[in-house]
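From the shared-data thread, chain only:
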Amino acid sequence: MVLAAVTGTHGVRGNVTLKLFAASEDTLSTYSPLYDQSGNTLPTVTLTGHTRGLLIAQFKGITSKEAAQHYKGTRLCVPREALPDTEDNAFYIHDLIGIELRDHETHPPIGNVKYAYDFGAGEMLEVTFTASGKSEYFHFTDANFPEIDVTNNSLTFNAPDTLNAAADADK
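Structure, as tokens:
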């Protein structure tokens, strides 16, 4: 589960800027150790301030801008099992990865969720369609995904009109 991502460096003393994906910046100090997207343990992270909607942080042992630059693009992650259980009818967005996608009207399986992203304009799901093998990105909204049943590994998909028009043109 991604808690934050390093967006760049800040100053000359080894600080980095972080885009936070967790609900609170306190979350970063709650989990230790943190891992990168490949599962490698990261040095301890200390928050040192804020700038333009980002957090300023320092990795333990990193004292220069050049060394901090190495971490640009790194995602700060924790294993899913380290997070607390969710309440009834609640889930973490990454719990949807691998879930079966069903057609909104007829309900047969049509694909699955390949990955969940947040590029800054809201959460998106990457969906792979069984028939074509193609992957597409869709905003994670009630309109696109009206029914979610994590317990039964099922997500209902309501194709946007643009996707329906493209499918009709392919016929």
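Residues 164-171 have pLDDT under 50 and may be disordered.
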